TrEMBL record:
Gene3D superfamilies per UniProt: Naphthalene 1,2-dioxygenase Alpha Subunit, Chain A, domain 1, Rieske [2Fe-2S] iron-sulphur domain
Protein name according to UniProt: Oxygenase
Start and end residues of each Rieske domain: 18-129
Keyword field contains NAD: no
């Protein structure tokens, strides 16, 4: 398992950014144990409905806040009170900011009785956590997924869990620059255009090519704008048989190990007619096609060895630029502006458009 330091990414083992930690249904008033970023964490939903994540171990004497079934605090359903969570061992209670706000048998509450807590946003049926090695507030927004989640005529994704992979996330992000894998892995043909654009914390992949199966007519060109906003959330607007929106996301569990998910929202009508069961089924079938295409990348990742330095040829995409861009999330945020200066810009790997049509 190659780690962040093996790839020389920077000061931190885990990146700064927004990360999926589960689906909405996984947060409830019964706290649950989760593990990401090499840390044991606890997820719970406050009485307002807001989900929270705090570190798992109580600063009093180290009990796990979620792994208990027999304490009377658990049996009596007193684990979550308002927005706070109560430890099953001696009943100390912590607010969503992590600060202890009640000890059942003491008026004195030490300042040090504080759990690490993380910002959490629920969006598009998914729980997203802000992870920052510096412990600061988010310096970029969680994506809005094209706004399609709330748009009439769009069928929501059903999140596909793609597996826990023994691979560093950098090798998944490499895909942004990976011009050469589209023909063998994804069945692309007759490439017209392939480029990457780096804009601060965002990297785009602009793609135009034919496709063996995804286009309606053999001569049609599939045009994709795919981008990472931050280190872990890929989005793609796709025009094909249906308009659709891809989400691929991965979260470090340990340094060098990730959990990966996929989803596809599909537009089945313009919103003026109801979404029938048949349309919903067609959308889910379309999502399944997208999942299978992504599973082709996943199969490679599941079985490859780590690639610390790609052996590149001139017509490969700009792996080096993507990796340089990716490093910004593993280093203090005050270094990000310099990192942006080094990577921002457009890198064209291939352009076969007629010069009149070229932008
Ligand atoms: S260990 Fe949590 S209250 Fe004592
Ligand atoms: Fe791919």
């Amino acid at each position: 398992m190659a780690t962040s330091s093996d790839y020389r990414l920077g000061e931190y083992d885990f990146p700064r950014g927004w990360f999926m930690i589960g689906e909405s249904a996984e947060a409830s008033s019964t706290p649950s144990a989760i593990r990401y970023f090499g840390q044991d964490l606890v997820l719970y939903r406050g009485q307002s409905g807001q989900p929270y994540v705090v570190e798992a171990y109580c600063p009093h004497m180290g009990a796990h806040l979620a792994k208990n079934t027999t304490s009377y605090i658990v049996r009596d359903g007193e684990q979550v009170e308002g927005e706070s969570i109560r430890c099953p061992f001696h009943g100390w209670r912590y607010g969503p900011d992590g600060q202890c706000n009640h000890i059942p048998y003491s008026d004195f509450v030490p300042k040090a009785a504080k759990l690490k807590s993380f910002p959490v946003i629920e969006r598009a049926g998914i729980l997203w956590l802000w992870h920052d090695p510096e412990g600061l507030e988010p310096d970029f927004d969680l994506p809005d997924f094209g706004g399609h989640w709330d748009q009439p005529g769009w069928v929501h994704w059903k999140v596909d869990y793609m597996g826990d992979l023994d691979i560093h996330p950098i090798e998944v992000v490499d895909n942004m620059a990976d011009y050469g894998h589209f023909v063998p892995i994804h069945g692309a043909k007759d490439f017209v255009y392939f480029a990457n654009e780096f804009k601060d914390h965002v990297v785009h992949q602009y793609y135009a090519a034919g496709h063996r199966t995804l286009t309606l007519n053999p001569e049609d060109v599939l045009t994709l704008d795919t981008w990472y906003a931050g280190p872990s959330i890929l989005q793609s607007e796709m025009e094909g048989a249906f308009n659709s929106f891809i989400m691929i996301t991965h979260t470090p569990i340990e340094d060098g190990k990730i959990r990966v998910w996929h989803g596809l929202m599909v537009q089945v009508n313009d919103g003026s007619a109801p979404i029938t069961d048949d349309l919903r089924a067609a959308a889910l079938e379309y999502q399944e096609g997208s999942r299978l295409a992504f599973a082709q990348d996943v199969e490679i990742w599941q079985n490859k060895r780590a690639c610390l330095n790609p052996l590149v040829v001139p017509n490969d995409g700009p792996y080096g630029k993507v990796r340089l861009w990716y490093k910004q999330f593993y280093n203090p945020r005050d270094q990000a502006p310099d990192a942006h200066k080094r990577t921002n810009g457009l890198y064209v790997t291939l352009d076969k458009r007629k010069s009149s049509a070229a932008a």
